[in-house]
Amino acid sequence: MKITMLGTGAALPDPDRGQSAILISLDSGKHYLFDCGEGATRQMVRANVNPADVGVVFLTHLHHDHIGDFPYFVISSWMMNRKGSPVLLGPRGTRNFARHLFEDGAFHTDFAARSAYPLRQANIEAVRPDVREISPGMVYQDDEVKIHALHVDHIPEHICECFGVRFEAEGKVVAFSGDTKPCDAMVELARDADLMIHECTFPESFIAHRAKTGVGIYAHTSPTELGVIAARAGAKSVVATHFGHFDSTSPVLKRAAGHHLPVDLMGPHLMDEVAADIRKNYHGPLRLAHDLMRIDL
Question: Which residues of this UniProt protein bind Zn(2+) 1 (predicted)?
């Protein structure tokens, strides 16, 4: 099993990180995509994976930085001769999201133009996702994998459900948090996992700043809290991801984030602080994610 961190950033356009996307590739050649933020499709190609070969996409929630590349993924897969419909798993609202994209939605003109050609007509199902809105529990199973999902705690559920997942295949377990503040569901999903991939959007001081100023969502997991979750779950190894630009040196990002983050504290040096805070409670193998990081299990 190979895990490729296609995108490891958060909501703003970041010159060094794409948005949330994780690709799990099995030895059999099957591929499963978890989140599809900006850049995911291009990063697949950089990782030597044809988007048309990715059969299942799981959206943890419907924030733009987790779904923004999905139309490009579908249309690109169609143009690269996908056979059949991609399976799309996601929370309540996913069907509405997908319905407003292609034949009757935002990309209707593109669809109408391309579908006029016999080659695109021959694989028209590729641009008609098989959408399955999920509930907590077993959400997908085939002859090689099982995927369980539970609600995590990120934004109010009446706005959008948010899910963490447990992926089981080839005798291995990978857990992924999506976006969440600390919650017991992630401890359960990551119990004895071979790999726990968990959001770590902001250092402690940045979460405190956002909570104090009320400028945006601060329901995220701090590095210290991440270490506690990993230790409680007994995770065998941990990847921290979904970094909220706090390590960036981009002048554009710093100007744009002035009302959202304590930009005078931003910089790569904070990654050392993040690792040290995780290590306060978790002492197993730890990686801080970067785009196109590859992990073999």
Answer: 61, 63, 108, 179
Q: How many CB atoms lie within 10 A of CB 165?
A: 26
pLDDT single digits (tens) 218-274 = 688 999 999 999 999 999 999 999 999 999 999 999 998 887 788 888 999 999 999
Rounded to 5°, the CA angle 98-100-103 comes to 95
**Residue 265 belongs to domain spanning:** 2-296
* Spatial contact of 73 and 36, defined as CB atoms under 8 Å apart: yes
Choosing from 14, 35, 65, 194, the catalytic residue is 65
Tell whether 100 is in a known binding site: no
Check the annotation: does 61 bind a ligand: yes
**Count of domains observed in the chain:** 1
Q: Is 31 annotated as a binding residue?
A: no
- Please give the C-alpha separations between residue 256 and each of 237, 246, 261, 262, in angstroms, as whole numbers: 35, 12, 9, 11
The question of whether 16 is a catalytic residue gets the answer no
Question: Is residue 179 part of an annotated ligand binding site?
Answer: yes
Q: What is the signed CA dihedral for 291, 189, 228, 26, rounded to 10 degrees? A: -30
Give the CATH number for residue 200: 3.60.15.10
Q: What is the 3-state secondary structure (H, E, C) of 34-80?
A: ECCCCCHHHHHHHCCCCHHHEEEEECCCCCHHHHCCHHHHHHHHHHC
Residue 229 in tokens? 């979750």
